[in-house]
Amino acid sequence: METPLCFKGKMGTIYMMPSRYHGEKILPCQNLLKSTKLYARIFLLIHLNPTMRKEAAMFKILRVNMSDLSVKAEDIPKEYEGLGGRGMTSAIVANEVPPTCSAIGPNNKLVFAPGLLGGTNCANSGRISVGGKSPLTGTIKEANSGGQAGQYLAKLGIAAIVVEGFPQENRLYKLYVGKDKYELSPANDLKGLGNYATVEKLKAQFGEKVGFVSIGQAGEWKMAAASIAITDRELRPTRHAGRGGLGAVMGSKGLKAIVIDPSEGEMAPISDKDAFKEAAKRFVNALKEHPVTSQGLTNYGTDILINIINEAGGLPTRNFSSGRFEGAEKVAGETLNKITQERKGVVSHGCMAGCVIRCSGIFLDENGEYVSKWPEYETVWAWGPNCGIDDLDAIARIDRACDDYGLDTIEMGNAIAVAMEAGVKQFGDAAGAEELIAEVGSGTPLGRILGAGAAVVGKSFGVRRVPVVKNQALPAYDPRAIKGIGVTYATSTMGADHTSGYAVATNIMKVGGDVDPLKPEGQVELSRNLQIATAVIDTLGLCLFVAFPVMDMPDAFNAMVDMVNAKYGLSLTADDVTALGQRVLKLERDFNQRAGFTPADDRLPEFFKTEQLPPHNEVFDVPDDELDTLFNF
Amino acid sequence: METPLCFKGKMGTIYMMPSRYHGEKILPCQNLLKSTKLYARIFLLIHLNPTMRKEAAMFKILRVNMSDLSVKAEDIPKEYEGLGGRGMTSAIVANEVPPTCSAIGPNNKLVFAPGLLGGTNCANSGRISVGGKSPLTGTIKEANSGGQAGQYLAKLGIAAIVVEGFPQENRLYKLYVGKDKYELSPANDLKGLGNYATVEKLKAQFGEKVGFVSIGQAGEWKMAAASIAITDRELRPTRHAGRGGLGAVMGSKGLKAIVIDPSEGEMAPISDKDAFKEAAKRFVNALKEHPVTSQGLTNYGTDILINIINEAGGLPTRNFSSGRFEGAEKVAGETLNKITQERKGVVSHGCMAGCVIRCSGIFLDENGEYVSKWPEYETVWAWGPNCGIDDLDAIARIDRACDDYGLDTIEMGNAIAVAMEAGVKQFGDAAGAEELIAEVGSGTPLGRILGAGAAVVGKSFGVRRVPVVKNQALPAYDPRAIKGIGVTYATSTMGADHTSGYAVATNIMKVGGDVDPLKPEGQVELSRNLQIATAVIDTLGLCLFVAFPVMDMPDAFNAMVDMVNAKYGLSLTADDVTALGQRVLKLERDFNQRAGFTPADDRLPEFFKTEQLPPHNEVFDVPDDELDTLFNF
């Protein structure tokens, strides 16, 4: 131990340790980060007492080496002990990946990790974090997903799977992970298959009591918009670690799929079972009590936001040219609910076991045939308002295509909107949009441009208005009408990403306070606090939607902390939890600095500062020097 | 005057002035540049005494505003007085362009400037510098070209043309520049034309005693590999400001062509005519005496380098996979000379009046029909060895196509080699390469990918081995076998660019010293000195090839300095001239820093450090921390 203890708990202690990364010269920090230079290279360590260590020692890190095709289970190195989810993936990436390496080359790593509360019966705790250097942004990246994989890995005692090395050219493999049984085997028979067909083939071999992680054609082709699919409870590849092109990293490693067999797994050890049970109950009650998590999301899915954001004048329409879409009603959650009921689809479906929010559903076509899970709000927006399209059936089909090819719907909707601005198709042309997504799935040259993301579309077609930050496309909230989210887009360690600090909640829904969405004041502080809180939630493996009660109801927050304490035998305070989030952000930002990012990259594209957005006719006017204070903590 | 004088001359003084650029927050400098922070934002000013001022006042800056279609001749503002060429373009860009703006948006500017020795009868002094923020690299950019435009502008008393603002969509214009007569007029009739057809149409209107500057389809489409064509003495659009996509900036401004009519122009004023004449004579003698500028280049063109670089094991072959090409002899300068003589083409052609080197020629096909000027060495390499092609006729046709569409041959040859690595065509497929360049000229999706440059090809097709620095493709010298040029690629303010500091001269040709090309030692110092010297040569408007005698023969260097002193009535020393080059580099680097570039960007792609290059089996091993000292002056 080189540095002093930080948090003392009943059964253990959280330490701070210096990074073991020594592979590269550290660039001088920007002024704004000077004070954090030291902290940024320190990783959090929950150091457990001997009793807990014994139990924790059951947890392993799987090292999957694609160069020699070995799989080794190793004890969790001290510097990663007690980490989970995003904290784990970001620590491993920051520690082991040279920041300037090729993201699709031999020196990148792809990390999968369940959260700190994974493997318990805490509600909505089964998220899986996927991390690596992003082929899209060049930054560190964590994208997390629902589905069953996170919970299954935790039950198998796997703290992380680290995929490293580089395969022989044109070889594909699959990884089987069971209880103390790991196998890498050829998967060339899956070559060129979409995620749906991949899962069908794997089901025939491995049965239906497993979970699958896979890539479609986009990942095989190393497209920068490629996602990683995670199957839901019914083994549909509908949940995705979507953003930042991590599917391309998996493709570059030649890893087509992971099969997770939880059959001999068991629940994670818990230090104080009674206390955990009591806190978990309070947490569930909060989720069931808060109107967003018990009514809004449950009945209308995330698509409930269409009308809300349209009303707020922040629904980006036709490549961020307006904040209101005349066809909003036709693609809104209320309509989604209505036609789902009419067609006898499923309303209120949970993507993972233990979900009490159940924000998803099953979308059927007019003949009652399955099309896709309910498209998320951001997907409906990306292909709907942002492309001028008001046809929910077309949007659901495109959602299905994106899930099948393995593509981030946000990146792709933006890519096609930028292509529409270039005149490749007309805004509003739903059939044209379907043709374009088919081009991506066919790997045509036009498809390659689109699959490389919105920034490459802009470069290829000479388009000036390209809504990206750090090369990643903006999600479904215009930063001129909802300025808090603009701060998150600009400063997030991930590139433009709403989930990094969802200021929409406070700007628009008035959850956790009320900050005027149209004023620049207070947005940086709001985004900062949310980014810190989100890093915690992502590290615990909780679904981000728990943030609604956590931000609004003091006991929901306390229950969350109490569960961590009960599981690990700690006595963390709220401040300790905040410090955890801060440290995750700092190590991510440190990676990005070493990769060459500076405050000049923490900016929205020029046109958001110069073009007014109707109907509020606002520009994004949070001053640069305020943005540069975001990481002052 | 806010800062102390620097250089005192007979008739004037060179001042240092703080920048007038106040539009944007200055980012904190990297440590390595801390000491230069102040200097980097200071521009050089040759402040002339009253007599010379009166003469200099004849020189104007033309402000061409594409928003209101006005053209205004303004006196040279004090901070730009006495600058020329690259010094002028870089000062205006650094001073007036927000570093994080969209390069194809309203806030970028495109600057044309003749050099400080332009408009004189100094040999090879007619280069024209073109500057702006690069759509390819995002850095500041200066690309200079031969042809007649530079000399003509100087004779018209124009120190710079600054194209600014933004046109109405889909409108094209041409600019006429005569003696005190400037006119912007519609040019929609030129829309979609290549440079050859554009020039033919303009000749019909303006006659043959003018010079033309134009863009082809690539520039109109804002392709990041688009060049700006400058006509030679016979009004062929064969000379190009090639690198960095400045043709796309011209396209974004809606400016299809500039017509320069020198008919009422006159030679530039000279302070001490006798002294100038004497120095100019010594300078010519040196050019005529040095074997490279009087024999090698004259008889075989720049293509003489094929055999030399192949012999040195540094001729990048099949996308930088080998340093020797089995078909080198078939595309070498010796062969070019031979078939040119056989077909009765032209050997030894000068691209501008006053050229005594005459490194160009005229390439005819087998039927004796004009195909193109002699392709440069870098062009022959890009389409030849780098694509595995050994067919000079095909290469000359592609050269013609690139000149016509308006494309940088280095960027395009790399783009297609990367596409070949992706399997789009096979290495060695000359007909396939011709098909691909035709796709670019047709604006197909595949053509858009290629026209966006090698980095976008890599992103679109998921290729890991992409030879770019700051997104600009590497020229014709492998940095593993010629390590000095690798330092220049990595650190140049322009992205990978051999002309920024041509260490090949010293590494291979032993001009100006002898630094072992295979050893890392001494390369940083070599590149630093060459980058400084080149900034001077580019500022004076001299052809870079004068560097051979200037580096080898003390009197050639002295003659160059003497000409500047005689023209401006100064008494600059060698140290003063070095200081001028240093300051140009510093202001360029300062722009790049404000645009968000850091030392992490001053690196070669990973594979140059990990893959050995046959036949020497070397990697690029100049240490990062040595690279980071390059700007320590």
Structure, briefly:
With 633 residues, chain A is α+β, with helices and mostly antiparallel strands.
Care to describe what's here?
The structure is a homodimer of 633-residue chains. In chain A, 39% of the residues lie in helices and 16% in strands. Chain A is an alpha+beta fold. Chain A has a 6-stranded mixed beta sheet. In chain A, a hairpin with a 2-residue loop joins strand 10 and strand 11. Residues 1-47 of chain A have low confidence and may be disordered. At the A-B interface, helix 7, helix 17 and helix 18 of A face helix 7, helix 17 and helix 18 of B.
Layout of SSEs?
The structure is a homodimer of 633-residue chains.
Chain A: E1 5-8, E2 12-18, H1 37-40, E3 42-48, H2 50-56, E4 60-65, E5 70-75, H3 85-96, E6 110-114, E7 128-133, E8 140-145, H4 149-155, E9 158-164, E10 173-178, E11 181-186, H5 195-206, E12 211-214, H6 217-220, E13 228-230, E14 239-241, H7 246-252, E15 255-260, H8 273-289, H9 291-300, H10 305-311, H11 328-331, H12 333-342, E16 346-349, E17 360-364, E18 370-373, H13 377-383, H14 392-405, H15 409-421, H16 430-442, H17 445-451, H18 454-461, E19 468-469, E20 472-473, H19 483-491, H20 504-507, H21 523-540, H22 547-552, H23 554-568, H24 574-594, H25 606-610, H26 624-627
Parallel strand pairs in A: 4-9, 10-15
Antiparallel strand pairs in A: 1-2, 2-3, 4-5, 6-7, 6-9, 7-8, 10-11, 12-13, 12-15, 13-14, 16-17, 17-18, 19-20
Helix pairs in contact in A: 3-21, 3-24, 8-23, 13-15, 14-16, 15-18, 16-17, 19-21, 21-24
